[in-house]
Predict the 3D structure of the following.
Amino acid sequence: MHNLTVKTVIFTALFICLSVPFSAKAKDADNKKVVISKAEKVGMSSERLQRLDSLGQRYVADGNYAGLVTLVARKGKIVHFKAHGNFGVDNQTPMETDTLFRIYSMTKPVTAVAAMMLYEEGKFHMNDPVSKYLPAFADQKVLVNGELVTPDSPMRMRQLFMHTAGLSYGFGNDNAVDIEYQKAQLFQANDLDDFIAKLAKLPLRYQPGERYHYSVSMDILGAVIEKLADMPLDDFFSQRIFQPLKMNDTFFELPANKKQRLASDQYWDAQTNTIAVMPAERSRSYDNVGLFMGGGGLISTAYDYFRFSQMVLNGGELDGARLLGPKTVAFLGSNHMTAGVRAVGKHDLHAGQSMALGYGVVTDPALMPATSSMGELSWAGLAGTKFWIDPQEQLIGIGLVQLYSSPWPLRFDLKVGAYQAITELNSETK
């Protein structure tokens, strides 16, 4: 998820108390030392960046989070990369920079990039009906005032990227469509074919293109990718994105030899005001995965996600591996939601935010809840993870935690901490 408050859960990032000097401790998937650059070389203050350390220590000391990893980079150089605390209230293993996290909806931007790679190959157009590639949706209806009616227009590919296709997530109990989602047990499907077969039998909550409503649309996009690429989604991600970018710690299924690096699955217990361990029956399994969810299935690390984000910030290329053309990346990062659609209904987007293709995009920094830049791209995850990409300031911020239903504003504190450390705006450092 992005910087939003969803009815059933408020998702945030978490920070912990064990502070270590990162020029010595930061490491990647292969246990290699990660180079931490001097902040002053990219127009930032090393002294002011230390406020992020204090922030992490305070959150952990107060019992708000068990552990976290934070990363800030500017102009392609990592200037802050720290781990605090431990894996969880049930696991005192010290948090490390290469700790693995369930990133949930931070999978969505990866899915968007994968789809745009196929877009560049001419495999689809933005206004194509989704049913052109997934025929099960050809006869789907919309529930209007208790009656099933034919949609005014079909779901289109562009709408999947923006959550404007009329779909839902099944989070609430106050709507008949969401209740049907829950009954269908979509996320118990065996694979994406089974998922689509179940979903296509359910009605749309809104007319396609009518309004933004956070939904399973990126999971549908993942299914389209499978059909167009003629391979499972995990193979496409691995072969076309993770391997070229050397993202060696990002996957749908947790390798046996890396299980000890996965942070604990935890949630905030509002009744006791403490961190609690997620019950086993509510914790997603990452063994023998058959359902590859483009909307929220990945495990990753801060360093891997930095490499992905830097590729996007670079206009589609990193270290000689080009995934997308720069014009395509500019198209992906543009505001694709019309003012009329943006104005309709209840939103979990911020007032100064709209939708790019698979990302939230800032359209008015003054209306954002924390320091932001025009054109900034971001998203967040169910268990508190958060990232943003700021093309204007050439800055990337990542906060990885593992705490569901967190009431803490860490994602905003992280942004304030990163931006207050800038001493020279990008226009002054070129």
Remarks:
- The first helix runs from residue 22 to 25.
- Residues 1-24 have pLDDT under 50 and may be disordered.
